[in-house]
Amino acid sequence: MGAPRGKTISSQSESSIVTLTSNVANVRTPIFEVLVPRGVVYLLANQNRVRDSLLRGMLMLADLNVTAGTRISGATTLSIAVQGPSDESEKIVRTVPYSPWRDLPIVNQRNDDYKTNIISALDLGEDTGFKLPEAYKLMILAKGPDVIDWTKSYLEIPLFEVN
């Protein structure tokens, strides 16, 4: 096995890997699903280096908007979940409010001055993270008063390919 290779999965990735779904207002709904391709193992890291420090938490960039182009409510909760190919339902790993992302444009979320807040908001409770073998799904679920318009929204998760 070689060294892990970084891979960015986003709402703009090909549809064979990422499925985007409009949520139902006030119902926890899967909005973003990553299907791990055949022969691949992804690592969802729970440690990220920012400047000279190793921070515990997952990096996710999110700019979620309604049809009018305004941000969804900061009270919306986002859940990170995984689902194996034989699992009947997803296992929720962590649920957080959208508020740490709401007032930060994507350009700021990429900036080390702001990453600390969004990474620490998503501590997955595992030291290194989760390995996701082929056919597993990584899911982001949303529950809030607003319906996300994917033509005006963006979500990005850096993963590592470890095989």
Automatic annotation (TrEMBL):
List the taxonomic lineage: Bacteria, Thermotogati, Deinococcota, Deinococci, Deinococcales
Q: Which domain of life is it from?
A: Bacteria
Q: What is the protein's given name?
A: Uncharacterized protein
